[in-house]
Amino acid sequence: MKKTIGQAAEKSGISRKMIRYYEQIGLLPPARRSESGYRYYDEAAIRHLQFIRRARDMGFSLERIGQLLGLWQNEQRQSADVKALAQHYIAELDHSIQQMQDMRNELQDWIDHCHGDDRPECAIIDHLKPTTDS
Protein backbone atom coordinates (compact mmCIF):
# COMPACT_ATOMS: atom_id res chain seq x y z
CA MET A 1 0.00 0.00 0.00
CA LYS A 2 1.35 3.41 -0.98
CA LYS A 3 1.84 6.09 1.66
CA THR A 4 2.10 9.84 1.19
CA ILE A 5 5.15 11.63 2.54
CA GLY A 6 3.08 12.70 5.56
CA GLN A 7 2.09 9.11 6.27
CA ALA A 8 5.68 7.94 5.72
CA ALA A 9 6.88 10.61 8.15
CA GLU A 10 4.36 9.52 10.75
CA LYS A 11 5.10 5.81 10.33
CA SER A 12 8.89 6.26 10.39
CA GLY A 13 9.24 9.07 12.90
CA ILE A 14 11.24 11.12 10.39
CA SER A 15 10.05 14.57 9.34
CA ARG A 16 8.94 15.27 5.79
CA LYS A 17 11.85 17.69 5.41
CA MET A 18 14.37 15.03 6.44
CA ILE A 19 12.78 12.44 4.15
CA ARG A 20 13.24 14.82 1.23
CA TYR A 21 16.81 15.49 2.38
CA TYR A 22 17.62 11.77 2.63
CA GLU A 23 16.34 11.36 -0.92
CA GLN A 24 18.40 14.33 -2.09
CA ILE A 25 21.67 12.94 -0.65
CA GLY A 26 20.97 9.42 -1.87
CA LEU A 27 20.41 7.79 1.50
CA LEU A 28 16.87 6.96 0.44
CA PRO A 29 15.95 5.98 -3.12
CA PRO A 30 13.76 8.57 -4.85
CA ALA A 31 10.09 8.13 -4.10
CA ARG A 32 7.65 7.14 -6.77
CA ARG A 33 5.57 10.05 -7.98
CA SER A 34 1.94 10.34 -8.82
CA GLU A 35 0.86 12.02 -12.06
CA SER A 36 0.39 15.21 -10.08
CA GLY A 37 3.92 14.96 -8.66
CA TYR A 38 3.15 13.77 -5.12
CA ARG A 39 5.66 11.43 -3.52
CA TYR A 40 4.46 7.94 -2.58
CA TYR A 41 6.28 5.40 -0.45
CA ASP A 42 5.79 1.65 -0.34
CA GLU A 43 6.41 -0.60 2.67
CA ALA A 44 10.03 -1.21 1.64
CA ALA A 45 10.67 2.54 1.69
CA ILE A 46 9.01 2.80 5.11
CA ARG A 47 11.29 0.02 6.44
CA HIS A 48 14.24 1.85 4.90
CA LEU A 49 13.20 5.04 6.73
CA GLN A 50 12.71 3.14 10.00
CA PHE A 51 16.22 1.69 9.64
CA ILE A 52 17.61 5.20 9.12
CA ARG A 53 15.68 6.50 12.12
CA ARG A 54 16.97 3.74 14.40
CA ALA A 55 20.55 4.30 13.22
CA ARG A 56 20.20 8.07 13.79
CA ASP A 57 18.82 7.38 17.27
CA MET A 58 22.02 5.45 17.96
CA GLY A 59 24.03 8.45 16.81
CA PHE A 60 25.45 7.00 13.61
CA SER A 61 26.60 9.62 11.11
CA LEU A 62 24.88 9.85 7.74
CA GLU A 63 28.00 8.40 6.14
CA ARG A 64 27.91 5.38 8.44
CA ILE A 65 24.18 5.00 7.94
CA GLY A 66 24.86 4.79 4.22
CA GLN A 67 27.40 2.05 4.88
CA LEU A 68 24.99 0.22 7.17
CA LEU A 69 22.21 0.47 4.61
CA GLY A 70 24.52 -1.01 2.01
CA LEU A 71 25.38 -3.86 4.33
CA TRP A 72 21.72 -4.39 5.28
CA GLN A 73 20.70 -4.62 1.65
CA ASN A 74 23.59 -6.90 0.71
CA GLU A 75 22.51 -10.45 1.45
CA GLN A 76 26.10 -11.57 0.80
CA ARG A 77 27.44 -9.29 3.56
CA GLN A 78 29.68 -10.61 6.25
CA SER A 79 28.58 -9.86 9.77
CA ALA A 80 32.25 -9.18 10.56
CA ASP A 81 32.00 -6.04 8.40
CA VAL A 82 28.97 -4.80 10.32
CA LYS A 83 30.63 -5.60 13.63
CA ALA A 84 33.84 -3.81 12.63
CA LEU A 85 31.88 -0.69 11.68
CA ALA A 86 30.07 -0.71 15.04
CA GLN A 87 33.31 -1.35 16.94
CA HIS A 88 34.97 1.60 15.24
CA TYR A 89 32.02 3.77 16.25
CA ILE A 90 32.30 2.55 19.87
CA ALA A 91 35.99 3.51 19.89
CA GLU A 92 35.03 7.00 18.75
CA LEU A 93 32.32 7.18 21.41
CA ASP A 94 34.79 6.06 24.08
CA HIS A 95 37.20 8.79 22.97
CA SER A 96 34.44 11.42 23.11
CA ILE A 97 33.32 10.21 26.52
CA GLN A 98 36.90 10.45 27.82
CA GLN A 99 37.23 13.99 26.45
CA MET A 100 33.97 15.01 28.09
CA GLN A 101 34.99 13.39 31.38
CA ASP A 102 38.29 15.30 31.26
CA MET A 103 36.42 18.58 30.65
CA ARG A 104 34.03 17.78 33.47
CA ASN A 105 36.87 17.05 35.87
CA GLU A 106 38.67 20.26 34.95
CA LEU A 107 35.50 22.30 35.37
CA GLN A 108 34.88 20.63 38.74
CA ASP A 109 38.40 21.64 39.79
CA TRP A 110 37.65 25.25 38.82
CA ILE A 111 34.40 25.12 40.79
CA ASP A 112 36.21 23.70 43.81
CA HIS A 113 38.61 26.66 43.71
CA CYS A 114 35.93 29.34 43.29
CA HIS A 115 34.87 30.93 46.57
CA GLY A 116 31.28 31.31 45.39
CA ASP A 117 30.68 34.33 47.62
CA ASP A 118 30.29 38.08 47.17
CA ARG A 119 33.96 38.65 46.28
CA PRO A 120 34.81 39.38 42.63
CA GLU A 121 37.70 36.90 42.51
CA CYS A 122 36.66 33.71 40.76
CA ALA A 123 38.81 30.78 39.70
CA ILE A 124 36.37 29.94 36.91
CA ILE A 125 36.75 33.40 35.33
CA ASP A 126 40.51 33.27 35.90
CA HIS A 127 40.75 30.05 33.90
CA LEU A 128 38.56 31.32 31.08
CA LYS A 129 40.11 34.74 30.53
CA PRO A 130 42.76 35.02 27.84
CA THR A 131 46.38 35.13 28.81
CA THR A 132 48.57 37.99 27.67
CA ASP A 133 51.62 37.19 25.62
CA SER A 134 54.70 38.98 26.96
How would you portray this structure in words?
The protein has 134 residues and is mainly α. The protein has two domains: 1-76, Multidrug-efflux Transporter Regulator, Chain: A, Domain 2, CATH 1.10.1660; 78-134, no CATH class. 63% of the residues lie in helices and 5% in strands. The termini are far apart. The relative contact order is 0.08. The mean pLDDT is 94.
Task: Give me the secondary-structure topology.
Blueprint: E1 3-4, H1 5-12, H2 16-24, E2 32-33, E3 39-41, H3 43-57, H4 62-73, H5 79-112, H6 123-128
Antiparallel strand pairs: 1-3, 2-3
Largest sheet: 3 strands, antiparallel
Per CATH, the architecture of the largest domain is: Orthogonal Bundle
Main CATH class of the largest domain: Mainly Alpha
Classify the fold: give the CATH topology of the largest domain: Multidrug-efflux Transporter Regulator, Chain: A, Domain 2
How far from one another are the termini? 72 Å
**How many domains comprise the coordinates?**
2
Task: Output the radius of gyration.
Answer: 24 Å
Number of beta strands: 3
**Discrete helix count:** 6
SS-based structural class? mainly alpha
